[in-house]
Specification:
By secondary structure, the protein is α+β, with helices and mostly antiparallel strands. It has 15 helices and 20 strands. It has an 8-stranded antiparallel beta sheet with strand order 16-13-15-14-18-19-17-20, with helices on both faces. Strands 5, 6, 7, 10, 11 and 12 form a 6-stranded antiparallel beta sheet that branches. A hairpin with a 5-residue loop joins strand 10 (171-177) and strand 11. It is globular.
């Protein structure tokens, strides 16, 4: 696609040097964190390089941009930090990438426990400001450096979801520009018009979030011998401890071993590691009620040292060993055994990661008894091998396993549109 010179003139008039057709600028906005070999792009024959990049500063500018895009039939792709791995921020037919990095205002209502946030603000930046008022984000994606706009558009799960649910559960209001170029405001239940729609219903320009009291987070980890015992422990958490804990993460044995090797993490080797976190001010109550349960397992206090606790840590830990095939989805915890059974038919033994065989899981618990399950398998091929196209097809088997087990994908992006209705 070639931009109409009239469109270039109009965009330059509004945005000045915040409108760019520079090749380097365009190439830097043609990828996300997902590892997609060039062989795949060339096989799909899609235009992932935008024709231009625009950096708006206000909702009014976004509205003007949408009207111009409509006049000249230009695709628009919202871009936060590009931390998703499913092509959400990658063009499929050129057009204009809308980079929100200059819409990064943060206003805190300390008395009301709220934050008014620009879409380009990262969760880390939000917490940095909120902490000055004794507050913090209630829940946020594992990609802490991703943007609030992206987290709402994808309706992410992450740290704190066991207590607070999806990101949308903490959203009170969203301002966005709809496909007609009109600035709209949705509140409470109507937030679903935007949250989880991945930018298809409009471009987010401001979010109002509920915050929580700031507190140091304490962590403990239990080493569990078998998957069946993990299922039993998850059920006990949901039945008896739903109001005590902030976050619960379950890491399979192979993933745990990889993270121990890479980051010297203080986990139990060759075991399922169940990590549970809670605010320090709940310490006495949590330990009083939880220690009798943990007496059935090996357990210890965990010095939570940062992002290796997130699922991105697993990807980094195994990257030197080979290409990880990864998919994440949502499933009710009672259907987890069914998902594992289907994955075992396609990938082999659970808890084992070897080139070409086995798979492992990384699981976060959500308050509605929904699990965010990350599935990993290790490829036996390098990215330069033409057979990698078939190997990456295993990702589709993971997707179908979630659907057939009564679950959904967490993210749709450009690669899984057939599952969009299921996700919504």
């Amino acid at each position: 696609m070639t931009l109409d010179q009239r469109a270039i003139k109009e965009l330059t008039k509004i945005f000045g040097n915040r409108f760019s057709t520079d090749l380097a600028e365009r190439l830097s906005h043609s990828a996300d964190m997902g590892f997609i070999p060039e062989l795949v792009w060339s096989g799909l024959k899609i235009n992932i390089v935008p024709d231009a990049v625009v950096y708006p500063k206000s909702a009014d500018e976004v509205a003007e941009l949408v009207r111009i895009a409509n006049d000249y039939e230009l695709p628009l792709v919202p871009y936060g930090r590009g931390t998703n791995r499913y092509g959400n921020a990658v063009p499929a037919d050129g057009g204009i990438v809308v980079d929100f990095s200059q819409m990064r205002s943060v206003e805190i209502d300390q008395k009301g426990g709220k934050a008014y946030v620009g879409p380009g603000v990262t969760w880390k930046e939000l917490d940095k400001v909120a902490n000055q008022y004794g507050l913090q984000a209630a829940t946020y994606p594992s990609s802490y450096d991703s943007t609030v706009g992206g987290g709402v558009a994808g309706d992410a799960l992450g740290l704190g979801s066991y207590e607070h649910g999806f990101v949308s559960d903490t959203v009170e209001e969203v301002e966005f520009v709809d496909p007609r170029g009109e600035i709209r405001l949705v509140q409470k239940g109507d937030v679903a018009l935007v949250a989880g729609a991945e930018g298809t219903t409009g471009l987010i320009t401001r979010v109002t979030l509920k915050l929580k009291k700031s507190s140091p987070i304490m962590s403990y980890v239990a080493g569990v011998d078998s998957f069946d015992k993990v299922i039993d422990l998850i059920e006990k958490f949901y039945t008896n401890y739903s109001t005590l804990l902030w976050h619960i993460q379950v890491r399979g044995p192979a993933i745990s071993n990889g993270i121990i090797d890479k980051f010297n993490a203080d986990l139990f080797s060759n075991k399922w590691n169940v990590i549970f976190m809670f605010p320090e001010y709940r310490k006495d109550l949590v330990l009083l009620k939880l220690l009798p349960l943990l007496s059935n397992y090996s357990y210890k206090k965990l010095e939570w040292s940062g992002w290796w606790t997130f699922n991105h840590g697993a990807i980094v830990a195994f990257r030197p060993k080979g290409l990880l095939i990864h998919q994440h989805g949502l499933i009710e915890y009672k259907n987890l055994p069914k998902l594992v059974e289907k994955l075992s038919h396609s990938f082999g033994k659970l808890g084992e990661l070897k080139p070409g065989t086995g798979f492992d899981l990384d699981i976060a618990l959500e308050r509605r008894e929904v699990l965010l399950v990350n599935v990993y398998s290790e490829s036996q091929l390098g990215p330069e091998d033409k057979k990698i196209l078939a190997e990456l097809g295993k990702n589709t088997l993971m997707m179908e396993s979630f659907i057939e087990s009564g679950g959904s994908l967490l993210s749709v992006g450009m690669f899984a549109q057939q599952y969009a209705k299921n996700r919504l």
